[in-house]
Write a structure and sequence with these properties.
Number of strands of chain A: 10
Structural class of chain B: mainly alpha
Radius of gyration of chain B: 18 Å
Strand order of the largest sheet of chain B: 1-2
Oligomer: heterodimer
Number of strands of chain B: 2
Helix content of chain B: 55-70%
Bound molecules: adenosine-5'-triphosphate, magnesium ion
Strand order of the largest sheet of chain A: 6-7-8-3-9-10
Distance between the termini of chain B: 37 Å
Strand content of chain A: 15-25%
Radius of gyration of chain A: 18 Å
Shape of chain B: globular
């Protein structure tokens, strides 16, 4: 029942941890081909939103639609196979594997739910070619045959994106892909995210760096203490009183 | 003398097969199991009962008992979905003790006396004893090793290793941890079951103590010593730990001590096992692949 053009719709989503309302009755949507930014102070509940959408946690309440299909409460692997790719704020590489095989794992996504399809040998020349294409896209093809455990944080973040792209997702969730990167790396990463969107992926991203969020995203959703505080274009958010308060504390001047 | 060597070699071959199964669970899937001897025992008791009570021939009983053990392994693998690490270790120890107690206290399984009269298999009117039986064991070991090799190179193997490395990230790649953990327990247990069949028809007489907790420790030691997640690791481990007590015959009462010492040395000096990454052996004989 989602409106045409919506890739993700979240309705009244909540997730409590005991008494803590990490996400509290949040609603928003991501349109096809859009980059939507999820921002907010530390502990606002952004990562928890990702974890609920991607099935790491079940929602305490609410509905989540991926296009027309309801996906809330499905296990993570089922949501991934329906077309949601994600990265992790605290990177989670398959450390014992080569960089190439990290991406290979993503390539096999359609196979893992079928016994017969997961029997063949992985990594033939066509598989390698495909995996290399994703590494090339994020700019780390030169590291393909090395171990993923020795990569820099910037390259690990790229690897996580390549791995998620290999799922050929309808929606890509990026959790602070820019944090811990140098200025130069941030510029490259912004270029990469723009290219990804241009290729037709819809992106939902969490970002702390306001400058990055403002220049990259078409719309922003602001969370604070688990609740949605505001939603709008970067221009609207920049001047929103409540947002400024949440970031700078009550009584601060309106200079952001 | 020849007979003695054949006996030791046959036992090593059987343990290598069973340890290879444990390697699927511990090495590839990353699920600790300290109760693998239970499945070794289930295979042995299954074939013993199928042959002595139902009169099945070895050649029918072998696949059947392997299958039964695999299915029970799938069932007893379910705890691994809920608990991890040390809790899983304790749970699998519990499984080992329970299974052994069932063999011991349920009269159907022959109690402390166990089950005797398990027939030696025949092929083309030849009784498979001595070198013949060793050949059979080695053929089956070769087949299962090929299977493990093939498993490691399949998408299933890739998914299993991804799950071991990072379960949450694997989930985000479409990998169901339920599916791949249960699969690993099924395959690993079936291999233990196959080893149990070979053991039962080799010694012709089995009792509960053949499948107690110390045997699980020995099997895990073989895997860790040789190198977890390495196809040849458990085989090498079985050869080393299987022949040590024979080499040091007078020390046979101290075999657990010997295992412990060997294990400690490996963990201290070669934590990835003899065949692991960066081990002494690998540095001496570098080869491109795993
Ligand atoms: N598994 C969990 N168990 C208990 N509390 C949790 C859990 N995960 C998150 N929380 C709590 O929920 C709140 C929201 O956390 P979350 O990680 O979603 O914030 P965030 O907006 O991503 O913050 P940051 O910008 O620091 O990454 C925090 O108070 C956090 O401590
Ligand atoms: Mg976060």
């Amino acid at each position: 029942m989602a409106e045409k053009g919506m890739i993700l719709r979240v309705e009244g989503m909540s997730r409590y941890f005991g008494g803590l309302k990490a996400v509290d009755d949040v609603s928003f949507h991501v349109s096809r081909g859009e980059i939507l930014g999820l921002i907010g102070p530390n502990g606002a509940g952004k990562t928890t939103c990702f974890n609920v959408i991607s099935g790491v946690y079940r929602p305490t309440a609410g509905k989540i639609f991926l296009e027309e299909e309801r996906i809330d409460g499905l296990p993570a692997h089922a949501i991934a196979s329906r077309g949601v790719g994600r990265t992790f704020q605290i990177v989670r590489p398959f450390a014992g594997m080569t960089v190439l095989n990290n991406v290979m794992v993503g390539l096999g996504m359609q196979r893992y739910s079928s016994f017969l399809k997961s029997c063949p040998v992985f990594g033939d020349s066509q598989d390698r070619e495909e995996a290399m294409a994703f590494l090339r896209e994020v700019g780390i093809e030169g590291l393909a045959d090395g171990s993923s455990s020795v990569l820099s944080l910037g390259n690990l973040r790229r690897l996580e994106i390549a791995r998620a792209l290999a799922l050929r997702p309808r929606l890509l969730l990026l959790d602070e892909s820019f944090s811990g990167l140098s200025e130069e790396e941030i510029q490259q990463m912004m270029e990469l995210v723009r290219n990804i969107r241009e290729r037709g992926f819809s992106v939902l991203l969490i970002e702390h760096n306001m400058r990055v969020a403002m220049s990259l995203c078409h719309r922003l959703v602001v969370l604070d203490h688990g609740k949605k505080l505001a939603e709008g274009s970067p221009g609207e958010i920049r001047t929103d009183e409540r947002v400024i308060e949440a970031y700078l504390g009550r009584g601060a001047s309106a200079h952001a | 003398m020849g007979g003695y060597f054949t006996t030791v070699a046959t036992m090593i071959g059987i343990y290598a097969l069973v340890a290879s199964g444990l390697n699927i669970i511990v090495g590839f899937a990353g699920q600790i199991s300290l109760g693998h001897a239970a499945f070794f025992g289930i295979g042995a008791y299954s074939t013993a009962l199928l042959c002595t009570k139902l009169g099945l021939s070895f050649w029918w009983s072998l696949p059947l008992a392997t299958l039964i053990t695999g299915l029970i392994g799938a069932l007893l693998g379910i705890p691994s979905l809920r608990v991890k690490d040390d809790f899983l270790a304790i749970t699998t120890i519990g499984i080992n003790f329970i299974v052994r107690s069932i063999f011991l206290y349920v009269p159907f399984f022959g109690g402390a006396l166990g089950i005797g009269g398990i027939p030696t298999p025949t092929l083309l009117d030849t009784r498979l004893r001595g070198e013949y039986y060793l050949t059979l064991v080695l053929v089956l070991l070769a087949l299962t090793t090929w299977f493990v090799h093939r498993f490691a190179r399949s998408w299933t193997g890739l998914a299993t290793e991804a799950m071991r490395e990072e379960e949450t990230a694997a989930g985000a790649m479409g990998i169901s941890h339920v599916r791949f953990k249960i699969l690993a327990f099924t395959i690993g247990s079936a291999m233990a079951g196959l080893g149990g069949v070979l053991y039962a028809h080799f010694v012709n007489f089995i009792s509960p103590d053949d499948f107690g907790f110390p045997v699980s420790i020995m099997l895990l030691s073989m895997v860790v010593l040789g190198g977890m997640g390495k196809i040849w690791g458990p085989i090498l481990g079985a050869i080393v730990l299987g022949s040590l007590p024979e080499v040091f015959r007078p020390l046979v009462q101290y075999r657990m001590l010997l295992y412990g010492a060997a294990l400690l040395l490996v963990i201290r000096y070669q934590p990835q096992g003899i065949l692991g990454e960066g081990s002494l052996l690998r540095r001496l004989f570098p080869r491109g692949r795993r």
